[in-house]
Amino acid sequence: MEIREAVPADASRIHDIALTSWMDTYEEIYSERSKAHFVQEAYPQEEVVRAIRTAEEARGEYFNVGLIDGEIVGFIHAIDVEGTWEIVRLYVLPKYQQNGIGRRLIRELELQGASPIEVYVESRNYKARHFLTSYGFKEISETTEEVFGQVEPVTRLQRIY
Q1: How many CA atoms lie within 13 A of 45 on its CB side?
Q2: CA separation for the pair 56, 97 (Å, rounded)
Q3: Which CA distances in Å does 13 have to 38, 49, 101, 103, 129?
Q4: Cα dist. 137→3, 38, 81 in Å?
Q5: Which of 22, 72, 121, 123 has a CA positioned 20 to 30 A from the CA of residue 148?
Q6: Which has more pLDDT, 147 or 111?
Q7: Full-model pTM
Q8: What does the DSSP assignment read for 127-159?
């Protein structure tokens, strides 16, 4: 597996990975209406390109992709929020999950100097919560958030070194 910085030409693939992974993960959590709204509103390619360009230009932002045999199969996007790195996007295609790709993406973020790291995840996303806690993240708090017209509990996790 290879990890590299995302480039604008990756935007279409990143968009596809986000949609595929999100729909797989949240199939049972979100309503059909919320899922349809997500597909229409989330991860427009121009927004992905903007995020990649911002990460390229800024020291307080990372946007990396994970590749297997030259194909992008996952990505991570993190930003520095007043000294704490927040993972805002972390997706791996379902067929490549549980193969260490997510761990490698987070580890690369750590190697690039990100610490501490926080992430917010829907509380009913048990797969992501298990993955993160198995990697050493601790659950800090829970709140609610409106996501695409649906109110969901959200868990805040943090990893401190």
Answers
A1: 8
A2: 27
A3: 17, 11, 16, 20, 25
A4: 22, 27, 18
A5: 72
A6: 111
A7: 0.90
A8: HHHHHHHHTT-EEEEEEEEEETTEEEEEEEEEE
